[in-house]
Each structure stands twice: as structure tokens, then as C-alpha cells.
Design a protein that fits this description.
heterotrimer, A alpha/beta, B mainly alpha, C alpha/beta, A: alpha/beta, six-stranded mixed beta sheet, 11 helices, disordered N terminus, B: mainly alpha, MetI-like fold, 65% helix
């Protein structure tokens, strides 16, 4: 809920986070010939108990953000502060201690579970690594409890991952993520590999677990409908940058960045009558390569509003000038990285039902 | 293969308890290896190959149990007239005599030692050396990978026969251990490459990322997550290569730089037999059949183990 | 005459675990200029049906024990191989989900397009190339003349899918079957590709069978929908009516279980359980173990596709109650 953020400290503070993957040439003596700017300076906060959604198209860097938060990649620059401590500089024991509190749910339930381990071994592995969490004799019971929590039969403890369907495997992955009682769960496309009728089950489970354990979620996905459903706040990414961020209502009902508007207008709504009354913004061309992003505003090459200024001056993610007089209660009052930010109605028509 | 085949049918009833009883087996202490053993025991391919290999190893350890004839002492009265007498099981003349009047059966029994030792020891050492190089290069990447990969390329570039000749001729006296060392020296690159590729593929799996984000140590990630999943292609290449090493020993012996005359090996016998191929083909065929059987047994074993270690194929 | 009519089609697969009945008596038809969407989850038989129509089913292990596929009134299943081959590609074309693996990576895009004209129409090298460039312009590939000599990997996902569409269009077929054509693409590109496909369909007055799991994509472009579950069509209706008042609990559940972009909503409705294992389809109505409205009759008796009105059908014993609810 949005009101949460006024009366509590952020649990995770991300500042100017960047990850550039070097492009190299040569076999033994490598020299750098460029860099893929997968994440190019992003900042956001995550508050206790909230869900922050990150949406964007493939190649926008959202999965790299997940890896950076999980310390699976070291950032090129910037900081990730967990309760005030910069975790990107940690290693060894200190890093291991922080990891207990930040866990991840992966996209592909077919590759995120070791096929040669039983479900019991997979869900119990966190206890092997952090033996202080559960005494040895208690582990089997704890694992069965976790399976029960995620809606799996605790008797399945000796089965192998391949004996389960995609949705069940995703539940196993969630159980593993929950084992150490983390405060933050980073979920990278957790339902996009699942069948439509199973997606809802997993989304509901995640919401229920959030309430039960007071978890904070970073929910990274390309599906804007699911992100709206689960998120309290949403950040929109394009080519390594967050272009607009705000509460779910601010982003979905009052987007001010042209990319957000185009993205929203492109999502088909499963209702032909709503579809008929909608305006479609069809973007030209493809997303440029993150190895060679356009100067100034990254979106300008596909933007219908682009002007000379956009090519020279990079817009900052802040409250746009033309909304400077709006009150904080007004939904347009949120950061948007566009020189010509403006509201545009009829991107999402009001629901017909 | 077994009745545990394809269980998903029963898994589809979740989240209700599963009444179908597909999991009726006692559940205590099941691990990958115990499950693999359960599977292997019921696999006829494994049983046949295991029996063959056990027989072979017994022959290597206790040749006296199989024949009382000496492989090196020949009676020239048998020279060239030693037609095999296939009804004389385990007798001295069971497979006839060779050109120098020595019992072919006795030579087959005693020759097993050299061939099997070369095959097994070279395979083991090659897998160990190549596996470690591949694991380290693939897992750590970066400059370490560059250096190790280039070294591998250099070794791969050495022509096999030329390399073996150079290595073996630098030693004045060539024995079994020198041959094994030479084959290891030239053979480890093949495994290192396969292992490296396999490790790199597995390293990118999400379950490795998951283990890392749980704070698992490097050793744990390597041996619990990467090695078991990267092993299959290495096992396959190694078992196929085993036959190749036995053949390589034969080739080197034939060229006179491997094992030499007083030593007994199938390779030496094959090269001896070729001179009399038209008149007495049994001298060549008998050890050749032994080589083929041995190679086949190890390939079958490797295949069965690979299947058993992969729960998906069960 | 109806462009394509599938009548009582059955498809089996012989597997180690026995015979899997992937398609069990599917009926549908497409007219020229019409778009039929076949909606279903993985394993529902939607793609297998299309492969049978296209004649690219792997046989064995596949088998068509029963049914008719009438193309312009002629049964394709009784035709000779040669006759079918002439229809495939030239009169019925197919677009796949994964454009990268559908294109040969070692041949230029231009060569692969030109090949269609050279093989089917016997055009010369130069003429075929000119036609390919024309076709690439048709599907709005920028700088077609320059890019005709590029290889598939040099194109982006959206551009590759356009090339696939160009290939499908090359011989101006009467019918296009598109199997999840935009699933692998990003939303903004998805919208471009669907718009292109719809435009071209109008222009050439082609029939289009759109196979998808995405209820959103369907809402936008389809004229009528067939919803498949466990190898059968469980509901068929004109698109607007289906969304307004679904007549089968599965359709209803699907519509309620997807989050909507245009509203926040509370907890999602989740269809219980999992799609059935096709080797062990439940008796009676295949959906009954997951259906909130299931009664005794549903467990024993297979509901026929009942006529709701002239244009609609529902394979539910209680379609009246479902539609009114």
C-alpha cells in the first residue's frame, strides 16, 4: 500500500546502480571494444511489506537488476543498501549473512531446480548452508512444513523435480526461497513460463505468503497486467533506465512518459468491447542495442514527441517541470524521465465491467 | 526399464494426497546414488557388462585360475599347426597356438593385464586430470580459462603418433607405466574440453544461481550442483575413449615403441598375428575379439551408469 | 464454399505409456477473410490439430484414425502425397512461434524467400530476388533492398517474424495458420506484428487460423473462437459473445483468472488443479475435477457440444446455468 512508505524506512535503497558488460576481442590478450550498458544508473527504494513491480521489454535490463540485487553480478557502479548497509561491497561471511534476508524466485521452473536432487534436498539446502537456522534433526520436519505452506503434499519430499508440473515446480522454488525466512523476495518473471490457468494459482500464493510472512517483493515481469495486479508501486524500464516510477494507479491510470503510454496501449485487454474504444499507439521500429544506445533520451528514436532537445539532453527521472505545481495527492505527481511529459487519456479506457 | 518409469501421471493430483501409491517404496535415506544403484541392479545391460568386467578383472588379478600354461614359453612342435580346438574348454590348446608355439589362450589370459590396466588407468587418470582442468577453466573463467584453454589447444595440436613416439623414445626402457603416462600426456585434452563445455552450460543454470544466492560455498556449488550435472557427457566420452586407449596401446606396441616382445598384451598379439593372418587367422582374431568384448563391456557400463544417474531417464 | 472444414478429427500418439489421444473429435471451419482463434493451454491439442491440417504431423508416432479435413470441399486426408504437397505452402501456409529456428541460419533471408518462387513458380534467379524484395517491403521491413542479403540472426525478433509472414504470403495462400505467432515477442512488437497480419489478411482476403493461449490477443483480432481443453472443443462462439457471457465453466474460469490491465482487482480467481495428463484423461467431462459446478452426471457422461444458438456451442451439461450466472 502506498501509505506504507511515509511511515517507515526503506528496507532496500538502490542508488545509481549500473552494470556494463564489457565487449572484448582477442583470445589470450583481451581488449575491450565497448560495453553493453545493461543497467545504466537506476535508483529506487523498496519499503517493508510492499511489492515494487519492474516492467519492461526484453533487453531493458530488468533481469540484470535482479541479479545485481541478489549479488550474483557485481555492479559497475552504484550502491544497494539493505537496512543502510551497502551489500555490493560485501563478501564472505558478511555477504552470506545478508543473503539469508534476500531470496530469489526464478523464471523457468525447469532450470531453477537441480534435476539430480530430490525435492527434500532442494528445499532443505538452505538449512545445509545456514545450519544455524534449523538443527539437523529438525530439518525434515521444516522442509515438510515449507512444502505444506506452498500447497504441496509434504509426502512428495523424496520425488525429483521432473516428476512435477511447471506450476508445482514453481511452488518448490518458492518454498526454497522461503526456507530462511527472508524479508525480501526478488521474483524474476515468476509466472511467465506457466499455463494461464496455473499463473493465477501462483500469483495468489505469492500474495498470500506476503501477508503471512510480511515479505517485501521485487516483482520483475514483462506482463503489465500481472504487475498491476500484484504491485503497490511500479517502475517502467527502457534500455537500462527507469523512465517512470510511481504507485500502481499513477502509472497505469495517469502515465506521463510516452514509453509507458505506448507500452500500456499495446497490451491487449481480454474484452473486445473495451478494445474497440481504445487508442493504440503503435511504436515504430525495434529497441536499439544496449551496446550503442541513442544519445540523450534513450527512447527518442521511437518517440513521436522527440525533438532536438531529446537528442542532446538526457531527461532525469524526477517530477516533470510541467507538473511542478501539482499537489502530491494528484496522481500525475510522480517521477517521469521525459522533457515533454504529459498525460494522455484513453490509453486504458475505464473498465466496462 | 522399471516400474517407476514416468510418474507424472500420479503427480497430477496435487495438492490432494496421492493415493496411487507410486511412492510405496520405503522412503528413508534415498539419495541420488542409492536410487541409481536401485536402478542399475535391475538393468540387464548393467548386469551383463558388470559380469564381463568382473570376469576380466579376475583374469587380470589371478591369471593362474584360468590357465596353467605359460604365455611366454613356446613349444615349437606346435608351431603353425595349432588349430584351435574349441571343445577343450580352458585347455592349453583351446584357442590353438601361435607362430612360436605358445598357447593363444594363455596369452589371452595374461595379456588382459596390460590391456585392461592401460585402458582403465589411462581413462581414470585422463578423466581426473582433464576433468579438473575443465572444471577449473569452466567454473572460474576469465584469465584462468584463457590460459588453461590455450594449453589444452597446444596439447591437442600435437599429432598423436608423433607425440607418442617422441615421448616413448625419450625413455630408454618402455614399460606399461611409460605407455600409460604417454597416453595420459596426449589424451587429457579431449576430456578437458568436454568437461569445460559441460561445466559452462551447467554453470549458467538457474539452480546454480539459486545456490549462490543462498550463500553456498564454491566447493558446494562445484560438487553438489555442477559436477553431478556436468558428468554425463564426460562419462560418455571417457567410456568411448577407453576402447581407444586399448587400441592405442596395440598400435604403439605394433610400431615397436609401446610394449615390446617379452611383455604380453593383446596389442602385441594382434601385431604378431597379422603376419600369419592367411594361414592361421585365429592368432589375430582371438585377442581382437577380447579387445572388442572389453571395449563393449565398458561402453555398456558407462551407458547404464549415465542413465541411472539421470533421474529423468528413469 | 467453406474454405476449410475440419470434421470429427481424431489424432493419436503411440508412446511408451500407451496411446495418447491428443485430439478427440474436433470440428471447426474457416471462411475466406475470416479469423478463427483456437484457444487452449499447452497439451490441449490446439497445435496438433493445426499440424494435422497442415500435414506436418510426425506419423508415426502420430496417427489420424478418424476424421476429415476439407479444403475447398476436398478431403486432404485421402489425397495423394503429391497433391497435398502442392497445397502445403502454396495454398495453406504456416507461421510458427519461433522464427529463428524456422529459418535456415546459413542461408540469407533473400535466398530463402526467393527459393519459394523458384521452386513453386519456376521463376529465374533475378526475378525471384526482385519479388523477395517486394515482399519484404510488403511486410514493412525497412531498407529491404539492403537487407535482402542479410542472414536471419542479423534481424531482431520482430523483423524475423515479419520475414516468416513474408514467406507465408509469398505464394498468396488462401489460408494461413499462425501458431502462437507473437508469443516470443515483446508487447510493443507484438502489437506491430498482429496489426500487420490483420492488414494483410484483409488485403488478400485470406482465412486465418490463430492458435494461441493469450486471451488478450484473441479479443483484438478474431471473429470467432474455439476453446480447446483436453483434445476437444469445449466452447465455440463469436468473439464478443464469448467474452460477454462465456457458456463453459473453463472459459469462464480462464477469463476470470487473468489479471486485467484496466483494473486493479482483488484476489484472482484460480482454476483449481492442473490440466489433465493426456494419457489419463478423466472420464465424463474432462474438466470435471477442476470445475466448481461439477455434479454427478459430469463424472460419468461426456457432454456433447450443445448448440447454444446458431453461432455458438458449449460442451457443458449445464451451459444454460453457466451463461446466466
Amino acid at each position: 500500500m502506498p501509505e506504507r512508505r511515509e511511515n517507515s524506512e526503506p528496507i532496500l535503497e538502490v542508488r545509481d546502480l549500473a552494470k556494463h558488460f564489457p565487449l572484448t576481442q582477442g583470445i589470450l590478450f583481451k581488449r575491450q571494444i565497448g560495453a553493453v550498458k545493461a543497467v545504466d544508473g537506476i535508483s529506487f527504494d523498496l519499503y517493508p511489506g510492499e511489492t515494487l513491480g519492474i516492467v519492461g521489454e526484453s533487453g531493458c535490463g530488468k533481469s540484470t537488476v535482479a541479479k545485481l540485487l541478489m549479488n550474483l553480478e557485481r555492479p559497475t557502479s552504484g550502491t544497494v543498501r539493505y537496512k543502510g548497509e551497502d551489500i555490493t561491497k560485501l563478501s564472505g561471511r558478511a555477504l552470506k549473512a545478508v543473503r539469508r534476508n534476500i531470496q530469489m524466485v526464478f523464471q523457468d521452473p525447469y532450470t531453477s531446480l537441480n534435476p539430480r536432487m530430490t525435492v527434500g534436498d532442494i528445499v532443505g539446502e538452505p538449512f545445509d548452508i545456514h545450519p544455524e537456522v534449523a538443527p539437523k534433526g529438525d530439518r525434515r520436519r521444516r522442509v515438510q512444513e515449507l512444502l505444506d505452506v506452498v500447497g504441496l503434499n509434504p509426502e512428495y519430499i523424496n520425488r525429483y523435480p521432473h516428476q512435477f508440473s511447471g506450476g508445482q515446480r514453481q511452488r518448490i522454488g518458492i518454498a526454497r526461497g522461503l526456507a530462511l525466512r527472508p524479508e525480501i523476495i526478488v521474483a524474476d518473471e515468476p509466472v511467465s513460463a506457466l499455463d494461464v490457468s496455473v499463473q493465477a494459482q501462483v500469483v495468489n500464493l505469492m500474495e498470500q505468503l506476503q501477508d503471512e510472512f510480511g515479505l517485501s517483493y521485487m516483482f520483475i515481469a514483462h506482463d503489465l497486467s500481472i504487475v498491476r495486479h500484484i504491485s503497490d508501486r511500479v517502475g517502467v524500464m527502457y534500455l537500462g533506465k527507469i523512465v517512470e516510477i510511481g504507485t500502481e494507479t499513477e502509472i497505469y491510470e495517469h502515465p506521463t512518459h510516452p514509453y509507458t503510454q505506448a507500452l500500456l496501449s499495446a497490451v491487449p485487454v481480454p474484452d473486445p468491447e473495451t478494445e474497440d474504444g481504445r487508442e493504440r499507439i503503435v511504436l515504430e521500429g525495434d529497441v536499439p542495442s544496449p551496446a550503442d544506445p541513442p544519445s540523450g533520451c534513450h527512447f527518442r528514436t521511437r518517440c513521436w514527441k522527440a525533438q532536438q532537445r531529446c537528442a542532446v539532453e538526457e531527461p532525469a527521472l524526477a517530477l516533470p517541470e510541467n507538473f511542478a505545481d501539482t499537489l502530491p495527492e494528484q496522481p500525475v505527481h510522480h517521477p517521469s524521465a521525459c522533457h515533454f511529459a504529459a498525460e494522455r487519456t484513453a490509453v486504458i479506457p475505464p473498465s466496462s465491467r | 526399464m522399471t516400474e517407476t518409469l514416468n510418474v507424472p501421471a500420479s503427480a497430477s493430483t496435487d495438492p490432494q494426497p496421492d493415493p496411487s501409491g507410486a511412492d510405496a517404496k520405503p522412503a528413508k535415506g534415498r539419495s541420488l546414488w542409492t536410487d541409481a544403484w536401485q536402478d542399475l541392479r535391475r538393468n540387464p545391460m548393467f548386469v551383463i557388462s558388470a559380469v564381463l568386467i568382473v570376469l576380466l578383472l579376475t583374469m587380470v588379478a589371478f591369471p593362474g585360475w584360468f590357465t596353467s600354461a605359460s604365455p611366454t614359453v613356446g613349444d615349437l612342435t606346435h608351431h603353425y599347426q595349432g588349430e584351435p580346438r574349441y571343445t577343450h574348454f580352458f585347455g592349453e590348446d583351446w584357442f590353438g597356438y601361435d607362430t612360436q608355439g605358445r598357447s593363444v589362450w594363455a596369452r589371452m589370459v595374461h595379456g588382459a593385464r596390460a590391456s585392461v590396466l592401460v585402458g582403465v588407468l589411462v581413462t581414470l587418470s585422463v578423466t581426473l586430470v582433464g576433468g579438473i582442468v575443465g572444471l577449473v577453466a569452466g567454473y572460474f573463467g576469465g584469465w584462468l580459462d584463457s590460459v588453461l584453454s590455450r594449453i589444452t589447444d597446444i596439447f591437442q595440436g600435437i599429432p598423436f603418433l608423433l607425440g607418442a613416439m617422441v615421448v616413448l623414445t625419450t625413455f630408454t626402457k618402455s614399460n606399461l607405466w611409460v605407455v600409460i603416462a604417454a597416453l595420459l600426456f596426449l589424451g587429457w585434452t579431449q576430456i578437458a574440453r568436454v568437461a569445460r563445455g559441460s561445466v559452462i552450460t551447467v554453470k549458467q543454470s538457474d539452480y546454480v544461481h539459486a545456490a549462490k544466492s543462498l550463500g553456498a560455498s564454491t566447493v558446494r556449488i562445484m560438487f553438489r550442483h555442477i559436477v553431478p550435472n556436468a558428468l554425463a557427457p564426460v562419462v560418455v566420452v571417457a567410456t568411448t575413449a577407453l576402447g581407444g586407449y586399448i587400441a592405442a596401446e596395440a598400435t604403439l606396441s605394433y610400431l615397436g615403441i609401446g610394449l615390446a616382445a617379452p611383455a604380453v598384451s593383446w596389442g602385441v598379439d594382434v601385431s604378431n598375428g597379422k603376419d600369419a593372418l592367411r594361414t592361421a587367422p585365429h592368432i589375430l582374431i582371438s585377442p581382437a575379439v577380447m579387445v572388442s568384448l572389453t571395449v563393449l563391456a565398458f561402453i555398456m557400463l558407462g551407458d547404464a551408469v549415465r542413465n541411472a544417474l539421470d533421474p529423468k531417464s528413469r | 464454399m467453406t474454405l476449410l472444414e475440419v470434421r470429427d478429427l481424431h489424432v493419436d500418439f503411440q508412446t511408451r505409456d500407451g496411446v495418447v489421444k491428443a485430439v478427440n473429435g474436433v470440428n471447426y471451419s474457416v471462411e475466406a477473410g475470416e479469423t478463427l482463434a483456437v484457444l487452449g493451454e499447452s497439451g490441449s491439442g490446439k497445435s496438433v490439430t493445426a499440424q494435422a491440417v497442415m500435414g506436418i504431423l510426425d506419423m508415426p508416432p502420430g496417427r489420424i484414425p478418424k476424421g476429415e479435413i476439407l479444403f475447398h470441399g476436398e478431403n486432404m486426408l485421402t489425397m495423394s502425397k503429391e497433391e497435398r504437397r502442392k497445397i502445403r505452402g502454396a495454398r495453406i501456409a504456416m507461421i510458427f512461434q519461433d522464427a529463428l529456428s524456422s529459418l535456415n541460419p546459413v542461408l540469407t533471408v533473400g535466398y530463402q524467400l526467393a527459393e519459394m518462387f523458384r521452386v513453386h513458380q519456376g521463376l529465374g534467379r533475378k526475378e525471384a530476388k526482385a519479388r523477395s524484395i517486394e515482399l519484404m517491403e510488403r511486410v514493412k521491413i525497412p531498407a529491404a533492398k539492403a537487407r535482402v542479403n542479410d542472414y536471419p540472426h542479423q534481424f531482431s525478433g520482430g523483423m524475423r517474424q515479419r520475414i516468416m509472414i513474408a514467406m507465408a504470403l509469398a505464394l498468396e495462400p488462401d489460408l494461413i495458420i499462425a501458431d502462437e505467432p507473437t508469443t516470443a515477442l515483446d508487447v510493443t512488437v507484438q502489437a506491430q506484428v498482429m496489426a500487420l497480419l490483420a492488414d494483410l489478411q484483409r488485403e488478400y482476403n485470406m482465412g486465418l487460423i490463430l492458435i494461441t493461449h493469450d486471451l488478450g490477443v484473441v479479443a483484438d483480432v478474431a471473429d470467432k473462437i474455439a476453446v480447446m481443453y483436453a483434445g476437444r472443443i469445449v466452447e465455440t462462439a463469436p468473439v464478443k459473445e464469448l467474452y460477454r457471457a462465456p457458456a463453459h465453466p473453463y472459459t469462464k474460469g480462464l477469463l476470470e483468472s487473468i489479471p486485467r490491465l484496466d483494473r486493479k482487482g482483488q484476489e484472482l480467481y484460480a482454476i483449481q488443479g492442473l490440466p489433465p495428463n493426456m494419457a489419463k484423461v478423466p472420464e465424463g467431462c474432462a474438466f470435471h475435477p477442476r470445475c466448481p459446478a461439477a455434479r454427478d452426471i459430469c463424472r460419468t457422461e461426456l457432454p456433447p457440444l450443445a448448440e447454444v444458438d446458431d453461432a455458438r456451442g458449449s460442451a457443458c451439461h449445464f451451459w444454460k446455468e453457466t451463461i446466466d450466472a
